[in-house]
Amino acid sequence: MFPISFGSDNHSGIHFTVFSALQKVNTGFCPAYGDDPLTHDVLHRLEALFGGDCEAFLVMTGTGANVLALQSLISSFNAIICAESAHINVDECGAVQKCTQARLSPIKTSDGKLTTELIEPRLLGDRDQHHSQFKIISISQSTEYGTLYSVEEISRLAQFAHNNNMLLHIDGARLANAAAALGVDLKTMTKDAGADIISFGGTKNGLLFGEAIISFHPELTSNMRFFRKQCNQLFSKMRFISAQYEAYLDKDLWLKNALHANAMAQLLANRLKEFKQIKITQKVYVNSVFAILPKAWMAPLQEKYMFYTWDEARNEVRLMCSFNTLEEHIEDLVATIRELSEP
């Protein structure tokens, strides 16, 4: 174990409030598979948080959330447009293709963001019976590069999707960080912007496990509960996911955690800018910092701190902050870098 990790917001533990909530419900007996009062209440609260007239589902993992959200809306002959860097394309071991039998159609981008201009050429001829039929545009908010779609950009993509008989999916593993960075509520950024189905992540923001899917078209996702069972995402002791989300929603803990993680990333980026040998490669919006480091620094830094190399060819690394990243963690890293930078 590393005493300090900038590797992933998954490396952090459980927020103490969430841990207490788990202990609180760990008594007595309770109906399984979501048939308990706590789960019913949490689902209603989630639906209200996103503006109502929607349906919430609790699942175990982010990959499961993406698979289920997409599977509930497509057939095997469909295709899903996504950024080349998208989690569903790079980091989910082909789970979407395996479970849906649909095709991913990734588009190369410089910042992880899709635009209508990038997508439109892909649609030419896609209605031919020999071709997979495009059905969903899938975006990540925030993206894998830590970049953000504005509400207007999401609205533009949603309108474009709907005009072309498609739907808009948002992978919201870090949706809390995006809302915190944009200063908007979750309803404005999703339902009001025209999204059709989204996930609202918890694992990367202080939960032990658990993600929520929000469908803004329950009439289209009526089979979600059956897909959830088939995909091994129906947790039997559902109260232990629900208790976490109850704590997550109380007093806007989801937002407080995200604001802190984002602020730590901003601090980290500002401190790294003090070193002329380091180049920040993406504007810092949320809780990630992308930077090019001198190659000679990599080994000594990774002996002491956990972080991942994003682009090995140019020594670009990704440094992640989370709800329990402290200023002293950042100052510790900066002190080590200063030692390396001085002859």
Shape estimate? globular
Compute the separation of the termini in Å: 30 Å
Give, in order, the helices and strands: HHEHEHHEHEHEHHEEHHHEEHEEH
Q: What proportion of the residues is helical, as a percent range? A: 25-40%
Number of strands: 11
Lateral strand order in the biggest sheet: 1-7-6-5-4-2-3
CATH architecture of the largest domain: 3-Layer(aba) Sandwich
Report the uncertain regions: none
Secondary structure tally, helices? 14
Quote the beta fraction.
15-25%
What's the CATH H-level superfamily name of the largest domain?
A: Type I PLP-dependent aspartate aminotransferase-like (Major domain)
Q: State the secondary-structure class.
A: alpha/beta
In CATH, the topology of the largest domain is named Aspartate Aminotransferase, domain 2
Care to describe what's here?
The chain has helices at residues 16-25, 37-49, 62-71, 87-90, 95-100, 116-119, 151-163, 175-182, 186-189, 224-230, 239-249, 253-272, 295-304, 327-341; strands at 55-59, 78-83, 103-107, 133-140, 167-171, 197-201, 211-215, 279-280, 288-292, 308-311, 316-320. Helix 12 (253-272) packs parallel to helix 14. With 343 residues, the chain is α/β, with parallel strands linked by helices. It folds into two domains: 21-251, Aspartate Aminotransferase, domain 2, CATH 3.40.640; 253-341, Aspartate Aminotransferase, domain 1, CATH 3.90.1150. A seven-stranded mixed beta sheet has the order 1-7-6-5-4-2-3, sandwiched between helices. Strands 8-9-11-10 form a four-stranded antiparallel beta sheet. Helices cover 39% and strands 16% of the residues. The mean pLDDT is 96.
